[in-house]
Amino acid sequence: MTTYGYSLLSEQAPPDQLVADAARAEEAGFDFATVSDHYYPWLTAQGHSPYAWSVLGAVAQATQQLRLMSFVTCPIRRYHPAVVAQKAATMGVLSGGRFTLGLGAGENLNERVVGAWPAVAHRHQMFEESLEIIRSLLDGDSISFNGDYYDVGGAELFDLPEATVPVAVAVSGPHSCALAGEYGEAMVATHPDPDLVRMFTEAGGEGGRRYCQVPVSYGPDEQECRRVARDQFRWAALGWKALSELPDPPAFETATQYVREEDVAAIIPCGPDLDQHVAAVAKFRDAGFTDIALVQVGGDRQREFLPWAAETLLPALRNLDD
Question: By CB neighbour count within 10 A (0-12 exposed, 13-18 middle, 19+ buried), where does 119 fall?
Answer without folding.
Answer: exposed
